[in-house]
Amino acid sequence: MAMLQDRYEGYVHSSGEAEIEFNVELTVNRFADPDADVRVTQFNGRWTLERGDFRAEWEPAKRRGWIRQTANPYSIDAVLRIVHSLILARQGGFLLHSASVIRNGKAFLFAGVSEAGKTTISRLAPPDVTLLTDEISYVRKEPGGYVAYGTPFTGELAKLGENVSAPVSALYLLAKGTENRIDPVAPAEATRSLLANLLFFAEDEDLVQAIFHSAFEFVNYVPVSRLTFVPDARVWELIR
Amino acid sequence: MTKLYLTRNPRVAARNLDGEMMIMSGRDSTLFTLNKTATILWQSADGNTPLSEIVEQRICSEFAVEPARALQDAETLARELASHEILKISDQPIGQESSVDGEPR
Protein backbone atom coordinates (compact mmCIF):
# COMPACT_ATOMS: atom_id res chain seq x y z
CA MET A 1 0.00 0.00 0.00
CA ALA A 2 2.86 2.36 0.87
CA MET A 3 4.36 1.67 -2.54
CA LEU A 4 1.13 2.74 -4.26
CA GLN A 5 0.68 5.78 -2.02
CA ASP A 6 4.16 6.87 -2.95
CA ARG A 7 3.69 6.16 -6.66
CA TYR A 8 0.40 8.05 -6.84
CA GLU A 9 1.27 10.84 -4.42
CA GLY A 10 -0.90 13.85 -5.16
CA TYR A 11 -3.62 11.64 -6.62
CA VAL A 12 -4.48 9.69 -3.48
CA HIS A 13 -7.24 10.89 -1.22
CA SER A 14 -9.66 9.36 1.22
CA SER A 15 -12.94 10.06 -0.50
CA GLY A 16 -15.86 8.38 1.22
CA GLU A 17 -17.24 7.08 -2.04
CA ALA A 18 -14.90 5.97 -4.80
CA GLU A 19 -15.94 6.15 -8.45
CA ILE A 20 -14.64 2.62 -8.88
CA GLU A 21 -13.54 0.18 -6.22
CA PHE A 22 -10.99 -2.52 -7.02
CA ASN A 23 -10.05 -5.39 -4.78
CA VAL A 24 -6.41 -6.22 -5.36
CA GLU A 25 -5.28 -9.78 -4.77
CA LEU A 26 -1.53 -10.31 -4.67
CA THR A 27 -0.20 -13.62 -5.88
CA VAL A 28 3.30 -15.08 -5.96
CA ASN A 29 4.87 -15.68 -9.36
CA ARG A 30 1.65 -16.89 -10.83
CA PHE A 31 1.98 -14.76 -13.91
CA ALA A 32 4.96 -15.38 -16.09
CA ASP A 33 5.26 -12.94 -18.95
CA PRO A 34 4.89 -9.19 -18.29
CA ASP A 35 5.73 -8.48 -21.96
CA ALA A 36 2.81 -10.46 -23.33
CA ASP A 37 0.19 -8.52 -25.30
CA VAL A 38 -2.61 -6.95 -23.35
CA ARG A 39 -6.12 -8.23 -24.10
CA VAL A 40 -9.21 -6.22 -23.20
CA THR A 41 -12.62 -7.72 -23.89
CA GLN A 42 -16.15 -7.08 -22.78
CA PHE A 43 -19.02 -9.52 -22.30
CA ASN A 44 -22.41 -8.72 -20.78
CA GLY A 45 -21.17 -5.46 -19.31
CA ARG A 46 -18.13 -7.00 -17.67
CA TRP A 47 -14.66 -6.06 -18.87
CA THR A 48 -11.81 -8.53 -18.67
CA LEU A 49 -8.26 -7.16 -18.75
CA GLU A 50 -5.39 -9.59 -19.19
CA ARG A 51 -1.67 -9.35 -19.65
CA GLY A 52 1.16 -11.67 -18.80
CA ASP A 53 1.52 -10.10 -15.35
CA PHE A 54 -2.10 -9.57 -14.31
CA ARG A 55 -5.73 -10.43 -14.77
CA ALA A 56 -8.53 -8.07 -13.84
CA GLU A 57 -12.26 -7.66 -14.21
CA TRP A 58 -14.35 -4.53 -14.00
CA GLU A 59 -18.10 -4.04 -14.03
CA PRO A 60 -18.85 -0.36 -14.76
CA ALA A 61 -22.51 -0.67 -13.73
CA LYS A 62 -21.50 -1.92 -10.28
CA ARG A 63 -18.47 0.37 -10.12
CA ARG A 64 -16.48 -2.56 -8.84
CA GLY A 65 -13.73 -4.84 -10.00
CA TRP A 66 -10.77 -6.92 -8.95
CA ILE A 67 -7.14 -7.19 -9.92
CA ARG A 68 -4.99 -10.27 -9.48
CA GLN A 69 -1.28 -9.57 -9.81
CA THR A 70 2.10 -10.00 -8.24
CA ALA A 71 3.39 -7.32 -5.87
CA ASN A 72 4.67 -4.77 -8.37
CA PRO A 73 3.49 -1.26 -9.28
CA TYR A 74 3.40 -1.80 -13.05
CA SER A 75 0.45 -4.16 -13.21
CA ILE A 76 -1.96 -1.92 -11.34
CA ASP A 77 -0.65 1.04 -13.32
CA ALA A 78 -1.55 -0.77 -16.55
CA VAL A 79 -5.01 -1.63 -15.24
CA LEU A 80 -5.65 2.00 -14.31
CA ARG A 81 -4.52 3.20 -17.74
CA ILE A 82 -6.79 0.70 -19.49
CA VAL A 83 -9.81 1.44 -17.30
CA HIS A 84 -9.41 5.17 -17.80
CA SER A 85 -9.02 4.70 -21.57
CA LEU A 86 -12.36 2.87 -21.58
CA ILE A 87 -14.08 5.51 -19.45
CA LEU A 88 -12.75 8.35 -21.59
CA ALA A 89 -13.68 6.65 -24.87
CA ARG A 90 -17.34 6.73 -23.91
CA GLN A 91 -17.07 10.44 -23.10
CA GLY A 92 -15.33 11.64 -26.26
CA GLY A 93 -11.89 11.83 -24.61
CA PHE A 94 -8.80 9.66 -24.66
CA LEU A 95 -5.40 8.80 -23.28
CA LEU A 96 -2.66 9.90 -25.63
CA HIS A 97 1.01 8.96 -25.89
CA SER A 98 2.17 12.50 -25.29
CA ALA A 99 3.76 14.78 -22.78
CA SER A 100 1.52 17.61 -21.64
CA VAL A 101 2.08 20.82 -19.74
CA ILE A 102 0.29 23.96 -18.68
CA ARG A 103 1.72 27.37 -19.51
CA ASN A 104 -0.11 30.68 -19.15
CA GLY A 105 -3.28 28.81 -18.24
CA LYS A 106 -3.25 26.78 -21.46
CA ALA A 107 -2.46 23.10 -21.93
CA PHE A 108 -0.08 21.94 -24.66
CA LEU A 109 0.31 18.34 -25.76
CA PHE A 110 3.49 16.91 -27.31
CA ALA A 111 2.77 13.62 -29.02
CA GLY A 112 5.11 11.04 -30.36
CA VAL A 113 6.22 7.47 -30.15
CA SER A 114 9.09 6.34 -27.97
CA GLU A 115 12.25 8.45 -28.58
CA ALA A 116 10.24 11.22 -30.28
CA GLY A 117 11.24 13.63 -27.53
CA LYS A 118 8.40 13.61 -24.99
CA THR A 119 10.71 13.23 -22.03
CA THR A 120 13.33 15.57 -23.53
CA ILE A 121 10.92 18.45 -24.03
CA SER A 122 9.48 17.89 -20.56
CA ARG A 123 12.94 17.99 -19.04
CA LEU A 124 13.74 21.25 -20.86
CA ALA A 125 10.61 23.02 -19.62
CA PRO A 126 11.27 26.36 -17.86
CA PRO A 127 10.07 27.01 -14.29
CA ASP A 128 6.80 28.68 -15.32
CA VAL A 129 5.65 25.46 -16.99
CA THR A 130 3.58 22.95 -15.01
CA LEU A 131 4.15 19.36 -16.03
CA LEU A 132 1.00 17.25 -16.43
CA THR A 133 2.83 14.17 -17.68
CA ASP A 134 5.87 13.22 -19.72
CA GLU A 135 4.26 10.07 -21.08
CA ILE A 136 0.46 9.65 -21.08
CA SER A 137 -1.87 12.62 -21.45
CA TYR A 138 -5.37 12.52 -20.07
CA VAL A 139 -7.78 14.42 -22.34
CA ARG A 140 -11.42 14.94 -21.51
CA LYS A 141 -14.09 16.41 -23.71
CA GLU A 142 -15.99 18.94 -21.66
CA PRO A 143 -18.75 21.41 -22.55
CA GLY A 144 -16.28 24.21 -23.23
CA GLY A 145 -13.83 22.10 -25.24
CA TYR A 146 -10.99 19.68 -24.51
CA VAL A 147 -9.25 19.74 -21.16
CA ALA A 148 -5.93 18.08 -20.29
CA TYR A 149 -5.45 16.69 -16.79
CA GLY A 150 -2.34 15.73 -14.90
CA THR A 151 -1.64 12.04 -14.56
CA PRO A 152 0.55 9.87 -12.36
CA PHE A 153 1.53 7.89 -15.45
CA THR A 154 5.21 8.66 -15.86
CA GLY A 155 7.76 7.96 -18.56
CA GLU A 156 11.53 8.16 -18.42
CA LEU A 157 11.37 11.38 -16.42
CA ALA A 158 9.85 9.37 -13.54
CA LYS A 159 8.24 12.53 -12.23
CA LEU A 160 4.56 12.67 -11.37
CA GLY A 161 2.49 15.21 -13.22
CA GLU A 162 0.72 17.87 -11.18
CA ASN A 163 -2.89 17.02 -10.37
CA VAL A 164 -4.27 20.08 -12.18
CA SER A 165 -5.96 20.76 -15.52
CA ALA A 166 -6.33 23.36 -18.26
CA PRO A 167 -8.05 23.76 -21.64
CA VAL A 168 -6.06 22.22 -24.49
CA SER A 169 -4.61 24.97 -26.66
CA ALA A 170 -2.54 22.94 -29.13
CA LEU A 171 -1.27 19.50 -30.02
CA TYR A 172 2.29 19.32 -31.31
CA LEU A 173 3.61 16.29 -33.17
CA LEU A 174 7.21 16.01 -32.06
CA ALA A 175 10.18 15.66 -34.40
CA LYS A 176 13.83 16.12 -33.54
CA GLY A 177 15.73 18.31 -35.99
CA THR A 178 18.46 20.88 -36.46
CA GLU A 179 16.32 23.93 -35.72
CA ASN A 180 13.27 24.90 -33.72
CA ARG A 181 10.20 25.50 -35.80
CA ILE A 182 6.47 24.89 -35.97
CA ASP A 183 4.86 23.74 -39.22
CA PRO A 184 1.20 23.25 -40.01
CA VAL A 185 -0.11 19.73 -40.43
CA ALA A 186 -2.98 18.88 -42.77
CA PRO A 187 -6.10 17.63 -40.97
CA ALA A 188 -5.91 14.13 -42.46
CA GLU A 189 -2.29 13.69 -41.40
CA ALA A 190 -3.07 15.20 -38.00
CA THR A 191 -5.89 12.72 -37.50
CA ARG A 192 -3.74 9.78 -38.57
CA SER A 193 -0.98 10.85 -36.19
CA LEU A 194 -3.43 11.34 -33.36
CA LEU A 195 -4.97 7.91 -33.93
CA ALA A 196 -1.51 6.34 -34.07
CA ASN A 197 -0.70 7.77 -30.65
CA LEU A 198 -3.94 6.95 -28.85
CA LEU A 199 -3.85 4.39 -26.09
CA PHE A 200 -6.64 2.00 -26.79
CA PHE A 201 -6.64 -1.75 -26.36
CA ALA A 202 -10.27 -2.85 -26.25
CA GLU A 203 -11.66 -5.36 -28.69
CA ASP A 204 -14.98 -3.58 -28.79
CA GLU A 205 -16.50 -2.30 -32.02
CA ASP A 206 -18.65 0.39 -30.44
CA LEU A 207 -15.75 1.88 -28.51
CA VAL A 208 -13.40 1.65 -31.50
CA GLN A 209 -15.91 3.61 -33.54
CA ALA A 210 -16.33 6.11 -30.71
CA ILE A 211 -12.62 6.76 -30.35
CA PHE A 212 -12.17 6.98 -34.13
CA HIS A 213 -14.76 9.71 -34.38
CA SER A 214 -13.39 11.41 -31.25
CA ALA A 215 -10.04 11.82 -33.00
CA PHE A 216 -11.70 13.65 -35.90
CA GLU A 217 -13.64 15.86 -33.50
CA PHE A 218 -10.47 16.74 -31.61
CA VAL A 219 -8.55 17.66 -34.79
CA ASN A 220 -11.49 19.76 -35.89
CA TYR A 221 -11.35 21.67 -32.62
CA VAL A 222 -7.70 21.82 -31.55
CA PRO A 223 -4.85 23.15 -33.73
CA VAL A 224 -2.35 20.41 -34.59
CA SER A 225 1.18 21.31 -35.75
CA ARG A 226 4.54 19.66 -36.14
CA LEU A 227 7.12 20.87 -33.64
CA THR A 228 10.66 20.26 -34.82
CA PHE A 229 13.20 20.98 -32.12
CA VAL A 230 16.81 20.77 -31.11
CA PRO A 231 17.31 19.49 -27.57
CA ASP A 232 17.79 22.75 -25.72
CA ALA A 233 15.50 25.07 -23.79
CA ARG A 234 15.09 27.61 -26.62
CA VAL A 235 12.28 25.50 -28.07
CA TRP A 236 10.11 26.77 -25.22
CA GLU A 237 10.24 30.27 -26.74
CA LEU A 238 7.80 28.89 -29.35
CA ILE A 239 5.36 27.45 -26.80
CA ARG A 240 3.25 30.14 -25.22
CA MET B 1 -18.78 -13.29 -66.34
CA THR B 2 -20.19 -13.38 -62.81
CA LYS B 3 -21.32 -10.04 -61.49
CA LEU B 4 -19.87 -8.85 -58.22
CA TYR B 5 -21.78 -6.73 -55.72
CA LEU B 6 -20.22 -4.72 -52.92
CA THR B 7 -21.53 -3.33 -49.68
CA ARG B 8 -19.83 -1.61 -46.82
CA ASN B 9 -19.12 -3.47 -43.63
CA PRO B 10 -21.15 -1.54 -41.04
CA ARG B 11 -18.73 -2.71 -38.34
CA VAL B 12 -16.00 -0.31 -39.47
CA ALA B 13 -15.74 3.38 -38.71
CA ALA B 14 -15.23 5.63 -41.72
CA ARG B 15 -14.65 9.31 -42.37
CA ASN B 16 -13.73 11.35 -45.40
CA LEU B 17 -11.37 14.21 -44.58
CA ASP B 18 -10.13 16.51 -47.33
CA GLY B 19 -10.76 13.80 -49.90
CA GLU B 20 -8.96 11.09 -47.93
CA MET B 21 -11.16 8.22 -46.85
CA MET B 22 -10.03 6.76 -43.56
CA ILE B 23 -11.42 3.51 -42.25
CA MET B 24 -10.83 1.89 -38.90
CA SER B 25 -11.54 -1.75 -38.26
CA GLY B 26 -13.89 -2.17 -35.34
CA ARG B 27 -12.41 -5.59 -34.72
CA ASP B 28 -8.73 -4.79 -34.24
CA SER B 29 -8.48 -0.96 -34.56
CA THR B 30 -6.36 -1.17 -37.72
CA LEU B 31 -6.46 2.13 -39.62
CA PHE B 32 -6.67 2.16 -43.41
CA THR B 33 -6.40 5.14 -45.74
CA LEU B 34 -8.07 4.34 -49.05
CA ASN B 35 -6.59 5.40 -52.38
CA LYS B 36 -8.79 7.06 -55.01
CA THR B 37 -9.97 3.83 -56.59
CA ALA B 38 -10.69 2.18 -53.25
CA THR B 39 -12.56 5.31 -52.18
CA ILE B 40 -14.74 5.08 -55.29
CA LEU B 41 -15.50 1.44 -54.51
CA TRP B 42 -16.35 2.34 -50.92
CA GLN B 43 -18.59 5.23 -51.95
CA SER B 44 -20.33 3.16 -54.61
CA ALA B 45 -20.77 0.02 -52.53
CA ASP B 46 -24.54 0.13 -52.22
CA GLY B 47 -25.06 -3.60 -52.49
CA ASN B 48 -27.11 -3.28 -55.66
CA THR B 49 -24.81 -1.76 -58.28
CA PRO B 50 -22.61 -4.41 -59.90
CA LEU B 51 -18.89 -3.79 -59.86
CA SER B 52 -18.81 -3.71 -63.66
CA GLU B 53 -21.21 -0.75 -63.61
CA ILE B 54 -19.18 1.05 -60.93
CA VAL B 55 -16.05 0.59 -63.03
CA GLU B 56 -17.75 1.80 -66.19
CA GLN B 57 -19.44 4.82 -64.64
CA ARG B 58 -17.01 5.90 -61.93
CA ILE B 59 -13.54 4.55 -62.70
CA CYS B 60 -13.23 4.53 -66.50
CA SER B 61 -14.73 8.00 -66.61
CA GLU B 62 -12.13 9.32 -64.19
CA PHE B 63 -9.01 7.41 -65.13
CA ALA B 64 -7.62 6.77 -68.61
CA VAL B 65 -7.75 3.02 -68.36
CA GLU B 66 -8.90 0.19 -70.60
CA PRO B 67 -12.28 -1.12 -69.31
CA ALA B 68 -11.42 -4.83 -69.11
CA ARG B 69 -8.19 -4.12 -67.27
CA ALA B 70 -9.95 -1.65 -64.99
CA LEU B 71 -12.56 -4.25 -64.07
CA GLN B 72 -9.91 -6.85 -63.37
CA ASP B 73 -7.97 -4.46 -61.14
CA ALA B 74 -11.15 -3.30 -59.38
CA GLU B 75 -12.16 -6.88 -58.63
CA THR B 76 -8.73 -7.59 -57.18
CA LEU B 77 -9.01 -4.44 -55.06
CA ALA B 78 -12.56 -5.27 -53.93
CA ARG B 79 -11.45 -8.73 -52.79
CA GLU B 80 -8.53 -7.19 -50.92
CA LEU B 81 -10.85 -4.73 -49.17
CA ALA B 82 -13.13 -7.66 -48.34
CA SER B 83 -10.19 -9.58 -46.89
CA HIS B 84 -9.67 -6.66 -44.49
CA GLU B 85 -13.42 -6.71 -43.70
CA ILE B 86 -13.87 -3.20 -45.07
CA LEU B 87 -16.27 -4.33 -47.78
CA LYS B 88 -18.50 -7.34 -48.15
CA ILE B 89 -18.71 -8.88 -51.60
CA SER B 90 -21.20 -11.26 -53.15
CA ASP B 91 -22.30 -12.53 -56.55
CA GLN B 92 -25.85 -11.55 -55.55
CA PRO B 93 -27.21 -8.10 -54.68
CA ILE B 94 -26.84 -7.48 -50.96
CA GLY B 95 -28.90 -5.38 -48.55
CA GLN B 96 -27.78 -1.83 -47.99
CA GLU B 97 -26.27 -1.50 -44.54
CA SER B 98 -24.58 1.88 -44.65
CA SER B 99 -25.40 5.42 -45.54
CA VAL B 100 -24.07 6.86 -48.79
CA ASP B 101 -22.00 9.66 -47.37
CA GLY B 102 -19.16 7.50 -46.24
CA GLU B 103 -20.06 6.98 -42.63
CA PRO B 104 -21.82 3.96 -41.21
CA ARG B 105 -25.15 4.55 -39.55
- Give the end-to-end Cα distance of chain A, rounded to a whole number of Å: 39 Å
CATH topology of chain B: Outer Surface Protein A, domain 3
**Biggest sheet features of chain B:** 3 strands, antiparallel
Taking all Cα atoms into account, the compactness measure Rg of chain A is 18 Å
CATH architecture of chain B: Alpha-Beta Complex
Question: Which parts of chain A are unreliable, with pLDDT below 50 for 5 consecutive residues or more?
Answer: none
Walk across the major sheet of chain A and give the strand order. 1-5-4-3-2
How would you state the average pLDDT of chain B, rounded? 88
Q: Beta-sheet strand percentage of chain B?
A: 25-35%
Globally, the shape of chain A reads: globular
Instruction: Specify the number of helices of chain B.
Output: 3
Any descriptors?
heterodimer, A: 240 residues, alpha+beta, Phosphoenolpyruvate Carboxykinase, domain 3, 5-stranded mixed β-sheet, 5-stranded mixed barrel, 5 helices, 13 strands, globular, B: 105 residues, Outer Surface Protein A, domain 3, 3-stranded antiparallel β-sheet, 6 strands, disordered C terminus
